[in-house]
From TrEMBL:
This is RagB/SusD family nutrient uptake outer membrane protein. It holds the Pfam family SusD-like_3. The lineage of its organism: Bacteria, Pseudomonadati, Bacteroidota, Chitinophagia, Chitinophagales. Residues 347-633 form the RagB/SusD domain. Residues 1-22 form the signal peptide. InterPro entries: SusD-like_N (IPR033985), SusD_RagB_dom (IPR012944), TPR-like_helical_dom_sf (IPR011990). Belongs to the SusD family.
């Protein structure tokens, strides 16, 4: 019986350990005799393949190691001044990056980072030696080769998103390579993206259309996953950060070779749209569809409102659901302890419930009204009095405790708002209570059951991340979290990516088709009907610029807290504008309703133009003088 990929990864890491030759770039192969042993038969070769997966599954996919999760501004954490290792990204929002000790350093693997060139080296070793096992079938060889190429592409994709132009290690250097050969140089950012696409094109024919056994092969690569990654990479290449960005026109090697395109190329969006179309079609052919919650027998009597909420939450927390194009193994579930509030006396006594990951007020304001338009555009919604508390009514009874005084901001919002966020007065379906007529609810003011406690266990803004907690998880006197992995690519994300590329390529009509598919699942009317009827800008969707704003906001809402939006905001070059305002929350240390519902500034983020791309540490520049520093650092 085949082992789950997670088990193989653990075993492989124990059995195969390859020390690096050069700490700044692990580009040289390991001991040849050890490599021969690692490829002596099929089982050992498969074991080595899973060392290639290990960096992704056990490091990059760990939420605390993802810059989009900790540095994207969707989530903040009230860290202690002397706090520990998991807060690198959250701390960087307060102080900026540091060239002396780079956060999420992918060259050295320090400060929450991982040595990605070492991971690429392992992929190269596998590709160089996959012919050796005599008991490996041609089908297996083709598939495993394709998987290694995908992984190599993915590691380069992660590098280019952080650093822009990076060195490409197409083949490992020989053992007798000179020092100068090892001192690699950055390559043009288009060269990097084109190489990623080349690897993925080579991988696709050898990949299976579907994973036939989630229990034994979860997390392994399929054709739809490879095509979706290709679409993502081409969209990044076409986006403002990399397509004619004037901030990096002077970015050159020491020999004067340009590393960034000097002008905008609209054809890149056309290429991205074609790749998105191919990826969506491959996903449909594989039976992937938008998730629809089918209640188990013990939930047969819940309301339609709760059903819709669970249908949206399930896109993330329902393991291996029909919407996932590519997901990871459920290795880590610790973020649930940091997202769930204390709602009962029993949970108050549970020391491992932190409830300290929280969303700023700006994110709560991002979600639409119940009419499907932004809160500052809805002609029927009381934007001016959004901070004023008022009693919830029967119309909100499945989402807010009936009669509870809460901010106007929390009333008459779209379903995804209530599915994604918990707040003072909001119901929390699950956590051991599956009766939606008598749900647990948050009481978030000071001295209330969910209110502020010690600094590290306090929700600093008054908004808990409900989306990242399974309704089946229970956090009472004992803790019984249901493990899941946040999807890396799901179908709704691809629909919106396709819509974005279509709009940028000039096809607004077709773009609206794909946006509206996502909105329909969210219980909203079409963009055309919602804006025409309720918005103060009724014709907004008729222009490329207007529809771009709609698509960007739709992605930010649909994919909130999924380690996606932080990357999007960077490629759109919108992160600097977002961080130009202070991070705010409610006054969570107040006991009264009036006192609690006052805006409080928590900190002013540090973000300037230079933050869009990571610097290379000063030490690496000293070790390899052929590398040039990222501009503005």
């Amino acid at each position: 019986m085949r082992k789950n990929i997670q088990t193989w990864i653990v075993a492989a890491l124990l059995l195969v350990s390859f020390p690096s030759c050069k700490k700044y770039l692990d580009v040289m192969p390991d001991n040849v005799a050890t490599i021969d042993y690692a490829f002596r038969n099929r089982n050992e070769a498969e074991n080595y393949l899973f060392t290639c997966y290990a960096t992704m599954q056990r490091n990059l996919f760990y939420t605390w190691n993802d810059p989009a999760f900790t540095m994207g501004g969707e989530i903040i954490h009230p860290i202690l001044q002397e706090g520990g290792g998991g807060d690198f990204g959250f701390r960087a929002l307060r102080s900026g990056k540091n060239v002396m000790s780079v956060e999420f350093d992918l060259f050295n693997g320090s400060n929450g980072g991982v040595k990605l060139y070492q991971a690429i080296r392992r992929c190269n070793i596998f590709l160089d030696n996959v012919d050796k096992p005599i008991d490996l079938t041609p089908t297996e060889k083709a598939r495993w080769t394709a998987e290694a190429k995908f992984l190599k592409a993915y590691y380069n994709y992660w590098l280019v998103r952080q650093y822009g132009p990076v060195p490409l290690i197409r083949k490992n250097l020989p053992l007798n390579a000179s020092v100068e050969d090892v001192r690699v140089k950055r390559e043009h950012v288009d060269t990097v993206f084109n190489y990623i696409v080349q690897l993925l094109d080579e991988a696709v024919p050898g990949l299976p259309p579907v994973i036939t056994s989630a229990a034994s092969e979860s997390g392994r690569i399929t054709k739809a996953a490879a095509l979706s990654l290709k679409a993502e990479a081409l969209t990044w290449q076409a986006s403002p950060l990399f397509n004619g960005n004037p901030d990096y026109i002077s970015f050159r090697t020491k020999e004067g070779q340009t590393l960034f395109p000097e002008k905008f190329d609209p054809g890149k969006w056309t290429r991205a749209a074609a790749a998105c179309k191919e990826a969506v079609e491959a996903a449909h052919d594989a039976g992937i569809k938008l998730y629809d919650f089918v209640p188990p027998a013990n939930l047969s009597n819940i309301s339609d409102s709760t059903m819709k909420l669970l249908a949206f939450q399930g896109t993330v927390s329902h393991l291996f659901n029909d919407e996932v194009i590519w997901g990871a193994n459920p290795v880590h579930a610790d973020f649930q302890y940091y997202c769930v509030p204390k709602m009962t006396p029993e949970s108050q006594a549970n020391d491992i419930i932190f409830g300290s990951l929280c969303a700023p007020l700006a994110i709560a304001e991002l979600f639409y009204t119940e009419n499907g338009v932004p809160i500052n555009e809805d002609k029927t919604w009381d934007y001016a009095n959004r901070n004023t508390p008022r009693a919830s009514d029967d119309a909100h009874k499945y989402y807010i405790h009936n009669g509870y005084q809460t901010a106007g901001l929390n009333l008459h919002r779209e379903m995804r708002f209530y599915a994604s966020l918990g707040f003072d007065g909001s119901n929390w379906f699950g956590n051991g209570t599956l009766d939606d007529e008598n749900q647990q609810y948050i009481q978030g003011k000071m001295k209330q059951v969910s209110g502020a406690a010690m600094a590290i266990k306090t929700n600093a803004t008054g908004y808990w991340i409900k989306k990242l907690v399974s309704y089946q998880s229970e956090f009472q006197r004992q803790s019984l979290p249901v493990a899941f992995a946040v999807p890396r690519i799901r179908l709704a994300a691809m629909y919106l990516l396709y819509a974005e590329a279509l709009n940028e390529a000039g096809n607004q009509a077709e773009a609206l088709v794909w946006i509206n598919k996502v909105r329909e699942r969210a219980g909203l009317k079409t963009v055309q009907e919602s804006w025409s009827t309720y918005s103060s800008q009724p014709g907004k969707f008729n222009t490329k610029d207007g529809l771009r704003q709609i698509i960007h906001q739709e992605r930010r809402i649909e994919l909130a807290f999924e380690s996606q939006v932080g990357w999007d905001m960077r490629r759109w070059k919108e992160m600097k504008d977002y961080f130009s305002s202070p991070i705010q929350g409610w006054s969570v240390y107040e006991e009264s309703v009036a006192g609690y519902y006052r805006r409080r500034t928590i900190f002013m983020p540090v973000y300037s133009t230079k933050e869009y791309l990571w610097p290379i540490s000063d030490n690496d520049l000293t070790v390899n003088p052929n590398l040039v520093q990222t501009p503005l650092w």
